[in-house]
Amino acid sequence: MSEATLRAAMAERAARAGGVVARETFRGDVAVETKANKNDLVTEADRDAQRQVIATIRQEFPNADFVCEEDSRPLGTDTMSVDLLDAVPETGDAWIVDPVDGTGNYVRGIRFWATSIATVSAGEAVAAATFLPAEGDIYTAGPESVSRNDESMTVSERGDPETFAAALIGWWAGMEGGEYASLFEAAADRFGDLRRLGSMQGTLALVASGGLEAAFMPKTPHPWDAIAGVHLVRRAGGTVTDVHGNPWSNGDDGLVASNGEAHDAVLDAVRDGLDLD
Length: 277
Known about the structure:
Elements: H1 3-23, E1 32-34, E2 41-43, H2 44-60, E3 66-68, E4 93-101, H3 103-107, E5 114-121, E6 124-132, E7 137-141, E8 146-148, E9 151-152, E10 165-168, H4 177-190, E11 193-195, H5 200-209, E12 214-217, H6 223-235, E13 239-241, E14 255-258, H7 263-274
Helix pairs in contact: 1-2, 4-7, 5-6
């Protein structure tokens, strides 16, 4: 088995393992804490799932580096002893982990949340897996395939933006209410359906599998919120850029993902909503 194939298999295995841990307390009695603001939520399920992801990956990659959303402690310990990188390294290998993407959905008992893993080399994604434990779906991209539940997937073939189902992703605390409304209005004027689903990685997986034609956000996403989903969309035949139309890479301004059939129209809607022209 090649190194890339091994890493792809491990991404899927780790996403499943972490997701199963989080699913054990889904719709149960779980304490909710806040981080940066009152809507930035975290639970012990997030931390437990992340610990399981790290433990699973280190069975095969004992010296692995991690970029994770949550603080983390090894399974069975109460002390911090796993060093988490602050940023995606430009050299070497790393694992990008979001243990519960969509914690707001999770704590409300909404089934659309994900455990998502990407593995990168020299800053570029090699493989990704996004597992939706409550839905029972797993989306994977390795060196030879891109699939949902082991069946090959591709982006939607729709080319008319007026028939598109598009989704707003991320949360943009830095935007004023008027800016948010302008972006929503610009998108609603151009697309057949507009949605906000509450899990960025889950939403990008739907673009990759053809359930949505587009997804976008104006602010820079965290790597754990985006890298896996971007890799899925691209491997499934879609297009991902920043809000300026350049091929997206980690740290860029905003994120615009589409099936590629009318990406310029999606980009124009986002830019018009942000008044970038």
